[in-house]
Structure formats: structure tokens, C-alpha cells
Amino acid sequence: MTKQEKKNLSLRIALSTGGTGGHVFPALCLAEELLKRGHSLSWCTDQRGEKYFTSRAAKKSDKLTFYIARDSGGLLGKLKRLVTIAGATFKVLVSFLKKKPDLVVGFGGYTTAPVVVAATLLRIPIVLHEQNAVLGKVNRWMASYAKVMALGFEATQRIPPEIKTIYVGNPVRAEIMQLREKEYPAVTNKIKLLVIGGSQGAALFSRVIPEAISLLPQPLKDRLEITQQARKELLVSTREAYQKIGISATVEPFFDNMADLYDGAHLVVCRAGAMTVAEVCVSHRPAIFVPLAIAMDNHQYYNASELVDADLAWLIKEKEFTPPVLAAQLSKIFEESALLKEISQRLQKKYRLDATVRLANYLEDLLPKEKES
User: Mean pLDDT, the chain, as a whole number?
Assistant: First the structure.
């Protein structure tokens, strides 16, 4: 298909996302690109996902929200979830019958299940995107109904052998993509440490990191400037912990200027959600990953493994993430500050993939083939 033919092709695409930022953010990136190309969009998500829909892409799209019960355990909890999925499927079917999309793109989460079922019943082509390095539970269930599984990690695990896959990477917000060409900030008198704990924050970080900082030599402590995400209920105690040891720290439950924070950071301490790993790579920032121990299939560990195995990041398992261990790791890293710049430069050369454009291109190429068949 020629570039001009793509330009003249206007598609109606339905995007399905779970209710967490890890599902919503890559979908929003794709939506911005698709709208820029002249396509029309609709969204399917649950009530949790609505809080993320403040961007231009979300406001210029139709939205369908529904309730999916969380798994509360036991037979009753499973039945409740099945009933809500059945209700959501009916709601999606009605919506798709009114405005039938040319294509459905699912980004995982239980919200994807009713959307995929409805699309299958109406013979609408389906593309699924898996953000993590281990195929998620719902995508595993739905994989056989999709034309293709688009992968955020090239070596994604637990994919059935009969499933067609393409590697595109994880779409990253445009403002963070712009950091690819920027230089790593020189390590001078001040060292800027960025601490982020995922969409919900990490209580573990509020408990361990201030104490670890207190164990550092005073000359190193005097150089540190810390920006940390903390849960709302831990804001006061985290701020007080830093004040007690005389550390300059900005502690908030949420930051809407992540590109600026990555841009200024010398080192990031973070969980290993798929989008966090992607943003660390694109912004080419050295990082200490602390994978969430209870993550399904230990997927956060595998999300970070490629970087760690290539000596492009450090990893501390949650059960080993104690103040003495972290303090020793930070001391070693900052004693070899030239290593930080070297890692940044290696990341900058290696991770230049524009996943958003690649995924959008694939969708545009897929639809004419579907219409011809």
C-alpha cells in the first residue's frame, strides 16, 4: 500500500484498555498517532480507566465504559466477575452494531475480554498488544481470536506456538520520546535521584529509601536531590523522614511532568512495569529496578531482565530491598559516576525504536488486506 493510499484511508478503530496506566498510556500514544493520520476512534474501558482520559486523543473519541468485578476469590467472586463480563459483552455488542469498527485493538486487562468476544461475534479483525515480557492472563485467553499479537518485548514468554506475533515495542508518550536525542546531564556538585513506584506508588520505597539515604556518607548525602512518588497516606511521613536527615526532597503522589523529571535525573529507582522500563530506555536513564514481587507470573522481573543482563541497569529483588543493601548499591554507583554516563550512552544507541509509529503502520497495512480477503 502506497503512502498516498494510506493517507486517504480513514478507519474506525476501537481501542480496549484495562483500567491501569500500564494499559492506558500505550493506547493513548497510539490514539494520538491514529488521530493525526485522520482515523476515528472509540474507547472501551472500565471505570478505573476514565481518570486517564483527559488528553486530546481521549476527548476526540467516543467512549464506552463498563464495570468488571474484581476477583475477590472463591466461587462467588468468580461468578460475579463472569456475570459482569457477560453484561459488558452485551453492552459492547450493542455499541458495535450501531457503529461497527473496522478493527479492534486490545491492550490487555479484563476489559479486553468482552470487547474481543463482541468483535469475534461480529467478525471484526482483532489485534492484541502485550506490554510485558510475559504474556498476560487475559491476552493468553484471547490470543487465538486475534489476527496478530503485537509485542512490547521481543522475547515475550508464554506465547502459544500457533499465535502470529510481531515485535513493535511499547508506545511511549511523545514528550518522553523527545528525550531520545538529549544529552545525559553532567554529574557535578548535585546528584538527582528520581524515585517512582508505578501508578499506585510503592509503600516499600517510602519505608526503605529514606533510611538507606541516612546510611550514606555525609558528603554524598549533601549532594543528593530527591524527587519521590509516594502514596497519599504516606506523604507526610515520607517528607518528615527526609527532613529528619537533612535531605532536599520533593515528595508527591503523582507527577504530571515526567518528561522533565526523567530529563533532569541522574539515576532512577523504580518498579519494573512495562511502561516504566520503556520510558527508562527511551529517556536513556540508568535505573535500579525493584520488581513487584506479587506481579502475575513475576513479569516485572522479566521486564527488567534484558537490561540487567546487558549491564544496562541494576536489579534488587523486593525481599532483598533493605536499607543497607540499597545504601551499598547507591554508594558503589555514585563512586563510579562515569559509569552512569556510559550506561546512558549505550541505552541511547540501543533503544531508538518508535513503537507507536510501527504499530500504527501495521494497522493501516492490515486493514486493506482484510477488506480484500
Answer: 90
For residues 150 and 213, membership in a common domain is answered with no
Average pLDDT over every residue of 153-160: 94
Domain enclosing residue 209, as ranges: 177-350
Whether 106 and 196 share a structural domain? no
Which range, 111-120, 209-218, 333-342, has the best average confidence (pLDDT)? 209-218
Pure H helices in the chain = 3-8, 21-36, 56-59, 74-98, 112-121, 137-142, 174-177, 203-214, 218-221, 235-244, 258-264, 274-282, 299-309, 323-335, 337-350, 355-372
Note whether 71 and 165 are same-domain residues: yes
Total tally of structural domains belonging to the chain:
2
Domain harbouring 292, CATH code:
3.40.50.2000
Average pLDDT over residues 270-296: 95
Distance CA 173, CA 221 (A): 33
Instruction: Give the residue-averaged pLDDT of 203-227.
Output: 96
Whole-number Å distance between alpha carbons of 39 and 149 = 21
* Same domain, yes or no: 326 and 367: no
Are 77 and 125 found together in one domain?
yes
The C-alpha cell at 202 is: 510503592
CB 158 within 8 A of CB 262: no
Same domain, 79 and 183: no
> Of the candidates 11, 35, 28, which has an alpha carbon nearest to the alpha carbon of residue 99?
11
The amino acid occupying position 166 is I
Residues 162 and 192 in one domain: no
pLDDT attached to residue 110? 86
Q: Does residue 13 share a domain with residue 63?
A: yes
Q: Which of 261, 250, 207, 278 is nearest to 21 (CA)?
A: 278
Among 1-15, 172-186, 197-211, the minimum mean pLDDT is found in 1-15
